[in-house]
Specification:
Strand content: 25-35%
CATH architecture of the largest domain: 3-Layer(aba) Sandwich
CATH superfamily of the largest domain: NAD(P)-binding Rossmann-like Domain
Helix content: 25-40%
Bound molecules: NADP nicotinamide-adenine-dinucleotide phosphate
Radius of gyration: 20 Å
């Protein structure tokens, strides 16, 4: 039986929302059949919404948030995993419905876990975390234009929310894939950072605000749009025939006001990305490709490592768009 361990616990009693670092024990970990000692978790947009007020995502309190983690199996009731296996978890509603990764231990369903590829480790895998995994899924969606659909070679790819976790890593992957990456950002002081990641060209976020025509000049072979909202209408109108728009996020709003023309005249494809529901086969494939496409020494330069205390101070900045790069959480710091 484990000693007590530390976790971030959010609660909502009598309309009063609280977040504290508490000591709990395994009797609190009611779901799942694999117990994992966590090395790292990471801070994602969804985590910040949940830490603020549950984000209308968490319904049962008290609750341990954290939508991803990496660590080592301590006990497994499932043959797929054994003690000392190194594992990654992202999504599957862990940190939303099931207790999550802002904890020194988690217990989850064996069907939610994958083994860490030999080319990665627990630190590298959470430097990527849900954001990096999503960036990989988006980049492979863009690449499908020339592979799965056997269309023309991809050349120009737009990435919105460029300084964010998904955007930053997508720029790195897409430039490694050999594409010309055009990075859209609202942060004027981040041009050098984006160029260093591999962006060829930087575009001011303002250019994707306001009304757009039914169809504009087609300039993008592919797009990774983490912003959604009004920007997406313009993006669809500017995508070349057969182009693919991968849409993982809605940092800029959920409403889109588009029309049929990009789809029926140009065959543009809007490819929704839900990393949380990806199959285990897809996860295995994508995580195994990560080391070939990502320069981890570069990711390290824009990754901050926080303790639980620091996490509770920093998460509001992410909601205000004041954080850039990746933030990993070390429960043992
Ligand atoms: N579908 C999935 O599986 C999945 C997985 C992970 C994340 N997501 C979603 O993807 C989005 C990005 O996630 P992330 O982890 O990269 O978040 P993040 O690190 O907070 O980055 C979001 C970026 O979007 C830009 N932005 C923020 N507010 C904006 C606004 N009002 N209008 C336009 N741009 C704005 C900012 O970049 P600039 O300042 O450079 O413009 C910001 O850095 C979020 O909506 C998140 O929920 C989805």
């Amino acid at each position: 039986m484990l000693e007590k361990f530390k976790a971030v616990v959010i609660d909502n009693q009598n309309e009063k929302f609280t977040r504290e670092i508490k000591e709990i024990d395994t009797s609190h970990l009611k779901d799942g059949n694999v117990l994992v000692k966590i090395d790292y978790s990471s801070l994602n947009f969804k985590d910040a919404m949940i830490l603020k007020d549950g984000g209308r995502i968490v319904r049962k309190f008290p609750f341990v948030p954290g939508i991803d983690f990496s660590g080592t199996v301590v006990e497994s009731e499932d043959d797929k995993f054994k003690k000392d296996d190194k594992v990654i978890l992202t999504g599957f509603r862990v940190g939303e419905v099931y207790f999550g990764g802002f904890s020194q231990y988690a217990k989850v369903d064996a069907n939610f876990l994958i083994k860490i590829p030999k080319s990665l480790d627990t630190h590298k895998s959470m430097m990527l975390g849900t954001a990096g995994f999503t960036a990989l899924l988006c980049s492979f969606a863009v690449k499908a234009k020339e592979e799965l659909l056997l269309g023309e070679k991809v050349k120009d790819v737009l990435v919105t929310g460029a300084t964010g976790g998904v955007g930053s890593i997508a720029i790195m992957i897409l430039s490694k894939m050999g594409y010309d990456v055009h990075a859209v950002t609202g942060k004027k002081d981040k041009n050098d950072y984006l160029k260093d990641l591999g962006a060829k060209n930087i575009i001011d976020r303002k250019e994707f605000e306001g009304e757009s025509k039914l169809l504009e000049k087609g300039v993008w072979d592919g797009v990774v749009d983490t912003v959604g909202g009004v920007a997406l209408t313009k993006i669809l109108a500017q995508t070349k025939p057969g182009g693919i728009v991968a849409l993982p996020g809605n940092a800029g709003g959920i409403k889109i006001n588009t029309n049929c023309m990009p789809f029926v005249i140009r065959g543009v494809k809007l490819w929704g990305i839900d990393s949380s529901g990806s199959s285990i086969k897809r996860r295995d494939f994508v995580w195994n490709e990560a080391a070939k496409l990502i320069d981890f020494s570069k990711v390290q330069t824009f990754t901050k490592e926080l303790s639980f205390n620091e996490l509770l101070d920093v998460y509001p900045k992410l909601l205000k768009g004041e954080l850039s790069g990746r933030t990993i959480v070390n429960p043992n710091k």
